[in-house]
Amino acid sequence: MRMTEFARDVIGSEAHCVKYLRKHDLFNEETITCRGRRGVPCGSEMHRCTRKSGVQGWICKKKKCRTRRSVRTNMFFTYEDKNGNPNCKLSLSQIMSIVDVFLMTQCTIRQASHITGCSLSTVVDWYNMCREVCSKIISSQP
Length: 142
What we know:
By secondary structure, the chain is of the alpha+beta class. It folds into two domains: 28-73, no CATH class; 75-142. The protein is built from five helices and four strands. The protein has helices spanning 3-11, 14-23, 92-104, 109-116, 120-139, and strands at 32-33, 45-50, 56-60, 68-70. Helix 1 (3-11) packs antiparallel against helix 3, helix 3 runs antiparallel to helix 4 and helix 4 (109-116) packs across helix 5. It is globular.
């Protein structure tokens, strides 16, 4: 798939991006355990749901809990702030756009920022995460 096809077919739409990530096993499709709310552990199983807005995620099966989690929970696409809380304002297609530029081009951070429409600090953060993944893969090779 050429870069323009990737941009059109995957990055162009959030729904297409999710479909692509599922097709290539980059989404957590397993069940996850609910951590509960406000520090009260639940421990119940969560199942997949789609909100009215079309956002996909997880919801606790316990009626008294009903905690919701992002579909990105425990994934590369979860950006955590310094307190360890998920805090990513980018859509999956924006993240994939940054990853695409990281993988396919040899351009400066400033150029990547211009291409993706994201701030310099955002591109730097995501480039660092991409480098970390590459480092882990290389260091795990015998």
